[in-house]
Amino acid sequence: MIPADLPTLHHLTRPAMGTLTGITVASAAPEAEILPKIDAAFAEIGRWESLLSEWRPDSLTARLNGLPGGCADLPPEAGALFLLAGRISLASGGAFSLVWQGGRLWQHDAGVWCADGGPVGLGGILKGFLVDRAILALEAAGAHDFLIDAAGDIGARGDAPGQSGWPVRVGAGLDGAGAGSGRTLRLRDRSISTSDQRRQPGHIVDPRTGAPVDTAASVTVLAPTGAEADGLATAMLACGCRLRWPETSVIWQDRR
């Protein structure tokens, strides 16, 4: 007989963050109780994507880009994201930045940010931040064991049923050996992000020059938060260097 309290997997996949995003929750609770929690996580992703994606014409980021010296009031969470991006930019010598080719982004006052001289784009860090927001939404709803997978940006809490952590495969197909290659990591209470050019050649751009980064490498970063993992993976791929950052681990693979 199977124990009634044995956790099972509840999973939903939806378009989000420009890709198909999957949320899996391990719980012994009935599906009718778990699915609203997953819905709340997707709603939080959508809310912050609408607020910050430069591709949304009514977003706060689009407002910053709308006029020279444009300013916008940002929620504290967004301001913290901008400050984190500034730290990563400094650590990478400008190989990572929210502004391109000499643009400026600065905190004018408490909660007020301004931009000038170049477009603001959060593509190198936003997906990890959105994974963080979904994690907080699931935790607020009472979920303890779950995995969020946004095609290269992954966050996990707790354990998969009968396992320690959640199995996550990285580097699959990088060496030409097919999808079954790579290595499996156990992700628990951490986030992971992989940055490479395989899925979208040329989509990672050096903000100092505006030119696509020419690399055959793949950089995977494990970090306490998704925003850190995403931003650092992008920065390291762009600069071709290993950045020192607290509580992070890096897997660097190069097909050449």
Low-confidence stretches: none
State the secondary-structure class: alpha+beta
Major pleated sheet: 7 strands, antiparallel
Q: Secondary-structure element order, as H and E?
A: EEHHEHEEHEEEEEEHE
Strand order of the largest sheet: 1-2-6-7-10-11-12
What helical percentage do the residues reach? 25-40%
Overall pLDDT level: 89
Q: Would you kindly provide a written description of the structure presented here, covering whatever features stand out?
A:
It is a single chain. The chain has 256 residues and is an alpha+beta fold. It has helices spanning 31-52, 60-66, 76-91, 126-140, 226-239; strands spanning 8-16, 19-27, 70-73, 104-109, 112-116, 146-149, 153-157, 166-170, 183-187, 191-195, 217-223, 249-254. The strands form three sheets. A seven-stranded antiparallel β-sheet has the order 1-2-6-7-10-11-12. The model has no long low-confidence stretch (mean pLDDT 89).
What's the structural blueprint in terms of helices and strands?
Elements: E1 8-16, E2 19-27, H1 31-52, H2 60-66, E3 70-73, H3 76-91, E4 104-109, E5 112-116, H4 126-140, E6 146-149, E7 153-157, E8 166-170, E9 183-187, E10 191-195, E11 217-223, H5 226-239, E12 249-254
Antiparallel strand pairs: 1-2, 2-6, 3-5, 4-5, 6-7, 7-10, 8-9, 10-11, 11-12
Helix pairs in contact: 1-4, 3-5, 4-5
